[in-house]
């Protein structure tokens, strides 16, 4: 799903990623850990082309990312962040539907899929609420559903539990792991919390500009 070879990135002449190699298989579930400032978010941004690498190659789902338009690349992936990034003037359901409307999918189809997923994550009774009426954990569930609506082959998560208390964070991690199995997509989750790592899961570490298993 991800094949990265010898990728470098620096800011103002200071190298952050210094020859990163990384592979994630289709349907694989993996964590990326590393200290603050080690380059984890930078690494993710290169994958979804929020930022451009200097050297090296990146393939997503077998295709070089430069061979795709950004919207084509991002169609293959769902992305979630620490800060949820929901639109406050829109209801839960509307926030989720945005992802499907962006691809021009029929409203009936995406409404059914949104309701299925919102029910799955325990938010069936919140679909017409506004995000500011929801807890942090509930808002993150909405963001997860939005990211999954178009059935991406890959979900990228950058500190998805960083704003949550420990118990809620654990619930969200468990939910992500279950969704990875049920919806059959690869997931790469960045976290700096060791205690949240799902037992048995693959863990890579970003350190000194490299990724080590
Ligand atoms: N747009 C930018 N311009 C300049 N420097 C940047 C930029 N983005 C990141 N950096 C620098 O690159 C380094 C890695 O940042 P990055 O955000 O990738 O770290 P991180 O591992 O995600 O950290 P955290 O765990 O705190 O989120 C840091 O030193 C940061 O200051
Ligand atoms: Mg980061």
Q: Identify low-pLDDT runs.
A: none
CATH superfamily of the largest domain: P-loop containing nucleotide triphosphate hydrolases
Give a quick account of the main beta sheet: strands, pairing sense, barrel closure.
Answer: 6 strands, mixed
Computed Rg: 17 Å
Strand content: 25-35%
CATH top level assignment of the largest domain? Alpha Beta
Would you give the CATH topology of the largest domain? Rossmann fold
**Which compounds are bound in this model?**
adenosine-5'-triphosphate, magnesium ion
Query: What is the CATH architecture term of the largest domain?
Result: 3-Layer(aba) Sandwich
Count of alpha/pi helices: 6
Main sheet strand line-up: 6-7-8-3-9-10
Number of domains: 2
Structural class: alpha/beta
- How helical, in percent, are the residues? 25-40%
- 3D shape: globular
Distance, first to last CA: 17 Å
Explain how this protein is built:
The protein has 6 helices and 10 strands, in the order βββαββαβαααβαβββ. 32% of the residues lie in helices and 28% in strands. The chain has a 6-stranded mixed sheet with strand order 6-7-8-3-9-10, with helices on both faces. A 4-stranded antiparallel sheet has the order 2-1-4-5, with helices on one face. The chain has helices at residues 40-47, 70-75, 92-101, 107-120, 136-148, 166-183, and strands at 2-11, 14-24, 29-34, 55-60, 63-64, 77-81, 154-158, 186-190, 202-207, 210-212. It folds into 2 domains: 1-76 and 155-213, 3-Layer(aba) Sandwich (Rossmann fold); 89-151, no CATH class. With 213 residues, the protein is of the alpha/beta class. Bound molecules: adenosine-5'-triphosphate and magnesium ion. Magnesium ion is lined by residues 40-41, 158. Residues 40-41, 158 line the site of magnesium ion.
